[in-house]
Design a protein that fits this description.
Blueprint lengths: L11 E3 L6 E3 L3 E4 L4 H6 L11 E4 L4 E2 L3 E2 L8 E3 L1 E7 L8 H4 L3 E8 L2 E2 H10 L4 H4 L5 E2 L4 E2 H4 L6 E6 L2 E7 L7 H11 L7 E3 L7 E2 L5 E6 L3 E7 L1
Parallel strand pairs: 3-15, 5-11, 6-18
Antiparallel strand pairs: 1-2, 3-4, 7-10, 7-16, 8-9, 8-15, 9-12, 13-14, 13-17, 17-18
Manganese (II) ion (MN) binds next to loops.
Length: 227
C-alpha cells in the first residue's frame, strides 16, 4: 500500500547508551505543577486538579540550537522533568502508573509568554504560545532501568552560566504516578507518549545569543544556544 503524500517522518529521540531510539506519539504538558511557579504567574497554589495542554510531537527536538520563533518578543524558558511512556491505557491506577514509564529526560517548555498572556486574557487556547516549532528541546531519554523513578533531586536552569531556575522534584504538586492517573482518565495513553511535568519558579525571557543550560540531578543535562 502506498500513500497519497509522503509519510511524515517519525519523531525519534536518542536513548542514553543505546543505538535504539524512542519514538514519540503524543506530547502532554502539565500546567502550574510547582507552587512557587503558580504564585509567580499570579495563581493560587492550592491543590486544584491538574490541567493539561499539548505540544506537537515534532516540537520535541534533540538539538544544540533553539531558533527564536517569530511573532513573539517574550519567549520564556521553563525547565521540566520529561516522562517517556512504554505503555499506557485508560483509567490507570496511580499505584500501577510507574509500570508505564520507560524513562526520563530533562526538557525545556519554551513559551511565547506574550501570546500566552493575550490568549489567557481573551479566553483562547494556548496552542500558539506553546506548540510552535522547536519549542521543546529535550535531552537523551534515560531508561528508568538505569536510574529508577526520581522523586526528588535538584532541577535547575542557567542562562550564560547564571542560575535562573532552581527547584526540587519533590516540590511537584502532582507527582508522576498521579499525573499519569489523571491524564489516563481524559485520554488513552500509549507507548511513545511524552509528559512534560511542569516547571519550578524563576521562568523568564531568553534572547538570541544566550546559552541555556539545564539539568536534573541524577537524570540528565541539556544545553541549547538561542539563535
Ligand atoms: Mn511548562
Amino acid at each position: 500500500m502506498t500513500t497519497v503524500i509522503p509519510l511524515p517522518a517519525p519523531v525519534l529521540l536518542p536513548v542514553m547508551n543505546s543505538e535504539q531510539t524512542f519514538p514519540v506519539r503524543r506530547v502532554y504538558c502539565v500546567g502550574r505543577n510547582y507552587a512557587a511557579h503558580a504564585i509567580e504567574m499570579g495563581h493560587d497554589p492550592d491543590r486544584e486538579p491538574p490541567f493539561f495542554f499539548q505540544k506537537n510531537p515534532d516540537n520535541l527536538v534533540h538539538s544544540a540550537e533553539f531558533p527564536y520563533p517569530p511573532l513573539s518578543t517574550d519567549v520564556h524558558h521553563e525547565v521540566e522533568l520529561v516522562v517517556a511512556l512504554k505503555h499506557g491505557g485508560d483509567a490507570i491506577e496511580a499505584a500501577d502508573a510507574l509500570d508505564c514509564v520507560y524513562g526520563y529526560a530533562v526538557g525545556i517548555d519554551f513559551t511565547r509568554r506574550d501570546l500566552q498572556a493575550q490568549a489567557k486574557a481573551a479566553g483562547k487556547p494556548w496552542a500558539a504560545a506553546k506548540a510552535f516549532e522547536h519549542s521543546a528541546p529535550v535531552s537523551q531519554i534515560v531508561p528508568a532501568q538505569a536510574i529508577g523513578h526520581p522523586v526528588d533531586g535538584n532541577i535547575w536552569l542557567k542562562i550564560n552560566g547564571e542560575t535562573k531556575q532552581q527547584g526540587d522534584l519533590n516540590q511537584m504538586i502532582w507527582k508522576i504516578p498521579e499525573i499519569i492517573a489523571e491524564l489516563s482518565k481524559l485520554f488513552t495513553l500509549a507507548a511513545g507518549d511524552i509528559i512534560m511535568t511542569g516547571t519550578p519558579s524563576g521562568v523568564g525571557p531568553v534572547s538570541r545569543g544566550d546559552t541555556v543550560s539545564c539539568g536534573i540531578d541524577g537524570v540528565a543535562t541539556l544545553t541549547v544556544a538561542v539563535v
